[in-house]
Each structure stands twice: as C-alpha cells, then as structure tokens.
C-alpha cells in the first residue's frame, strides 16, 4: 500500500466535510450531494470523520513543531553573525568557524538545540518541547504515539518556550 494514500484520503475527506459544512451554513436542502459522502452509510461517514479529525490533529502538531524547530535554528544561525568578525588566531579562523557552524546547524540534534535555551527557558518548557518532538517523530515515522497531544496544547507549550526564550511575544 502506498503510505501517502492515507494522507490524500484524509485530505479529500476533510475537503468534502468542509464542502458539507459550507452547504449546511448556506442551508441547502441536500448538503451531501456531489460529495464522496453521499453514498456512505452514516456510521462509515462518522468513522471517516473521526479518522480525518485524528489525522488532522496529528499533522497540525507536526507542523507546529516544524515551525518551532525552524525558529530555533534560524535564531541560532542569526546569533552566529557576530562570530564572523571576532578576533581569532589565525585571523581567518573566525570567518571559517562562523561558516562551519552556520552550515551545520541543520544537522544538529533538535534536543541539543532545545537545551541550548536553558535558561532562560524553564526546565518544564524544555521537557514539553522534547515531548512534542517525540510525538512528532512518531507521526513522522508512521508509528502510534505513546500519548496524544492536542494541537492547542502543543501550540500553548511551544509558544511558552518561545516567549521565555524571547523568540516570540
């Protein structure tokens, strides 16, 4: 089975649900007409909606963490700028060291990057970010996460981290 099929199926189902919601809002007589939902038995439709919602929540946490991670990596990259003009022996070492570190930031382990921000980020913020990373890894590799993290929780926890690290308002 193509591992992408489940995602596209969820996307299509979600788009159909959005179409139904729009029609319901428009108060049309038959909101299911001309959708994949039209011929489904109600129980199967509910099960597909539940699965779509679950997948959408996982993907949202995945996307939130990806944005969080990129924010940390970009901040570190920008923080290295002053290194390029530092006094070193030999004089060329500063520029080379800056380039070496800047080019390598995307290869650093994200847990190590997260820990660089302690303090000012609180230990709880560090642990929360690492837990969301673990969840993200399970989603990315197609395994079942040990626990569910709602998108709202991931958003709040990652936002708290960024705020405490002065990377967000």
Summarize the structure in short:
The protein has 169 residues and is an all-alpha fold.
Detailed description of the structure:
The chain has 169 residues and is mainly α. The protein is built from 6 helices and no strands. It has helices at residues 5-26, 42-79, 93-104, 110-116, 123-140, 151-164. The longest helix is centred in the middle third of the chain and has 38 residues, at 42-79. The two termini are 44 Å apart.
Query: What is the percentage of strand-forming residues?
Result: under 5%
- Would you tell me the structural class of the helices and strands? mainly alpha
Per DSSP, the total helix count is: 6
Low-confidence stretches: none
Radius of gyration: 22 Å
List keywords for this structure.
single chain; 169 residues; mainly alpha; 6 helices; elongated
Please write out the topology.
Layout: H1 5-26, H2 42-79, H3 93-104, H4 110-116, H5 123-140, H6 151-164
């Amino acid at each position: 089975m193509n591992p992408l099929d489940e995602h596209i199926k969820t996307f299509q189902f979600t788009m159909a649900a959005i179409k139904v919601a729009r029609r319901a809002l428009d108060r049309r007589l038959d909101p299911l007409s001309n959708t994949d939902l039209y011929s489904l038995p109600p129980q199967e439709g509910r099960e597909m909606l539940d699965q779509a919602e679950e997948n959408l929540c996982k993907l949202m946490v995945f996307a939130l963490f990806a944005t969080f991670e990129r924010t940390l990596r970009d901040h570190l990259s920008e923080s290295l700028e002053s290194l390029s003009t530092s006094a070193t022996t030999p004089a060329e070492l500063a520029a080379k060291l800056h380039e070496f570190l800047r080019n390598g930031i995307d290869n650093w382990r994200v847990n190590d990057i997260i820990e660089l921000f302690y303090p000012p980020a609180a230990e709880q913020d560090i642990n929360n970010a690492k837990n969301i990373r673990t969840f993200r890894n399970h989603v990315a590799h197609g395994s079942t996460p040990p626990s569910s993290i709602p998108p709202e929780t991931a958003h709040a926890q990652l936002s708290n981290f960024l705020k405490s690290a002065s990377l967000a308002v």
